[in-house]
Design brief:
Layout lengths: L6 H4 L15 H22 L5 E3 L11 E3 L2 H4 L6 H27 L4 H13 L3 H11 L2 H17 L6 H24 L2 H32 L2 H61 L2
């Protein structure tokens, strides 16, 4: 009896050359901790410098009880222990804004993505695959990386005699999809810090304000007359520093997050357009 073989095992298979990228995300582990530590150091030793107060607490410690600040900058110290956390949040946002700006700028590549895709389409129409690959090397962005992976498979499929045209087109499409799956996570990595701090910073600021108000009204109950009104107004002003820092950090995170997601959407559109142009080109030129 003749051996029966399944169609799947007997039909040729197209392999992929896309390799997973190795990247370290050590910045996401260390940056938040370091930023909070720096935030505390700034609050404790810069804002809380004894020279900034008329009645400094020379005994020092984790939270010196300095009194009578000399200016508005020093009054931030009276906002309490929530202030260094908020400064840390602002530093975290700034750190990841810089990191994402550098990464996305590199991923955008050189020149317009639309112009790059048109050049590649022109080379493919003339069957100059090597020239199209060289153009990808010049682009040096995510669109160029995905297009280059697709073009290598494109070039391989031209000389392949075992697969049908539809199978070749599917192989090119699969290569583009796998290259895209490796590029997009690199673009979106660490954006979660911006989206999270966009809301958390405001909440932390409000927490500091509530704590400050509790302290202010507590002092009010211990005082009387004009001194009570003065202590209350002073406490409210100090508490609102927390709100200002929280809202400022949140606004910064929201604005930059929206800017980055818009740029990523543009890169993603370029990747989709490049993949579509490759498959359509092959299907029309190599039937």
């Amino acid at each position: 009896m003749a051996d029966l073989k399944s169609t799947a095992s007997s039909s040729p298979r197209a392999t992929t050359s896309v390799k997973a990228k190795k990247s370290s995300n050590i910045i996401s582990l260390l940056a938040p901790i370091l930023c909070v530590v720096v935030g505390y150091a700034f609050w404790r030793f810069v804002i809380g410098n004894p020279d900034n107060f008329n009645l400094p607490d020379n005994s020092g410690g984790f939270w010196p009880n300095h009194k009578d600040p000399k200016g508005d900058f020093a009054r931030m110290y009276d906002g309490g222990i929530i202030v260094p956390i908020l400064i840390g949040c602002l530093l975290i946002v700034t750190t990841f804004v810089i990191e994402r700006a550098l990464t996305i700028s590199k991923a955008t590549g050189k020149g317009s993505n639309a112009a790059f895709v048109r050049k590649v389409q022109f080379f493919l129409a003339d069957k100059k695959v090597d020239a199209a690959i060289a153009e990808c090397d010049k682009q040096k962005g995510s669109v160029g990386n995905v297009m280059k992976a697709g073009l290598r498979k494109y070039q391989e499929m031209i000389s392949n005699t075992e697969l049908t045209t539809d199978q070749k087109v599917m192989a090119i499409q699969k290569e583009v999809e796998e290259a895209t799956a490796l590029e997009l996570p690199m673009l979106e990595k660490n954006l979660v810090f911006l989206s999270t701090l966009a809301s958390v910073s405001t909440l932390i600021g409000l927490l500091g304000t509530v704590i400050g108000m509790i302290r202010a009204f507590g002092n009010l109950g211990e005082s009387g007359g004009g001194e009570a009104a003065r202590e209350l107004s002073k406490g409210i002003a100090e508490a609102l520093y927390n709100t200002a820092l929280g809202i400022g950090s949140s606004a910064f995170a929201i604005i930059t997050y929206n800017i980055f997601t818009t740029k990523i959407d543009g890169i993603t559109h370029g990747i989709d357009e490049s993949g579509f142009s490759l498959t359509q080109s092959f299907a029309s030129l190599y039937k």
